[in-house]
Specification:
Helix content is about 90%, strand content about 0%. The protein is elongated and about 65 Å long. By secondary structure, the protein is an all-alpha fold. It is built from three helices and no strands. The protein has a domain of about 55 residues. α1 runs antiparallel to α2. The longest helix is centred in the N-terminal third of the chain and has 40 residues.
Length: about 90
Amino acid sequence: MTPEFVRGITEEVFKVTMLVAGPPLLVGLVVGVVVGFFQTITQIQEFTLTFVPKMLAVFACLFLLMPWMSGKLMAFTTNLIEQIPVYIK
């Protein structure tokens, strides 16, 4: 295994991780900013108001994108396992 080969695998791992983890994190960020803006405008300081909408939005995102996310993870894992003979050489 050359350093370039390891770097390529690591790059692919980070790319798949960002593709899979990015959408729920982005949804949580956007909902958090919107709820924070709403709390600032209305001066409501309820702690559960920040957590419940974010949890619901992230769960909805996960529910909607889970087939795509699992497909990406399965493709990456299948490719990694199929390439084991190449990695050993």
